[in-house]
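Sample entry (396 residues):
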Amino acid sequence: MPDADPDDDSTGARIAAQRKRAGLTQRGLALRIPYSYSLLRHVEAGHKKASPQLTAAVARALDIPVTALIGPAAHALRPHRVAALIGPVREALDLYDLPTDPCLPQAPAAELVAAADGLCRDVRAARLQLAAASLPSLLVDLIVACRERPTTELWRALASTCRSAHDVATKLGYQDLAALALDRMGWAAERASDPEFAAIRQYKRALSYRSRTARHHIGLSMVADGHRILKAADGGEATRVVTGQLHLAAAVLSSRAHDLSGVESHLAQAREIAERTGEAGHVHWLSFGPANVAAHETFARLELRQFDAAYAAARSVRAPRGWATSRRAAHLVDQARAELETGRTDAALASLTLARKLAPQQTRFHPRVLDTLRGLLHIRRRSPQALSRLAAWAGL
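Predicted structure, serialized as tokens:
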């Protein structure tokens, strides 16, 4: 679908143009997004600025890419712009225990909860710039709301938003900010009295110990604590999904520690749970299911230097309908590594190229992309133009 009138590049004007193309009135579009008709009318007229959350909601409602509303240039994420995006997120997370102005306009709880859910969707779709831009205002709004009119629902939304802040920071390489976001997630999850969110936090914390130089036993202790926390949960599908995801984290950590028996044990337990749950990507946005188990096995086999087994695991992945773009792109990066290590250089380049196409912002900052590209450049001394372009794009 073509963009809005190029002579008017305001987001409000683009929203109006795309709405009309979809055959919707302003009231009709307002019914599809968690924002009022009055606000939409003012945004389209240029009297109010379109927030990143509203823009994302409109894009989802009209089933169009965000670039159709904000323009390709605004959507591009360059390394030198990352710090400018990350700074306001850090500042917003620091407000959690500081006085805030209770007279600030407060959005309805349902709107804030919907925005937190939409933010998770943006992260899964690998729209990192949009998610990073949305985070500061949503964090502040939720912190104020939880302080002035606390409910379990709002605390859960704040915990979810802090988790999204962690995911964005991790994907962009800001590990210190990722750790801070997880601290705030724990703070909010405790006030929500939600054991599943608390266990997810331990899962995320554990994965911060997956580097080759980390003390992997500390991460495994966090996984064990996550299992302990889940004893207070209701034991339903969501509990099983979080339990399975904890086993996948333990498999990754065990592979980093070169513990083959630990890898086999945790993968087997995760696989058994996945057979019961099926593809359960709707549960806490975790992408858990048989496909994710196979994707984690690919990573683990690579770490164990079982390259033929890694390639077989990668090829066994059948991406389910609705599988998160971020998860699919990350798996393609691991698949490319397995292909490289088994001599399939053309396939490796194709996998990296597809990862870039699916999730350019995420793939550009993925550390394993650089490792694989270096390997391809070393093997293929006369590099094809496609490889040279991809290496230059990634910063090599």
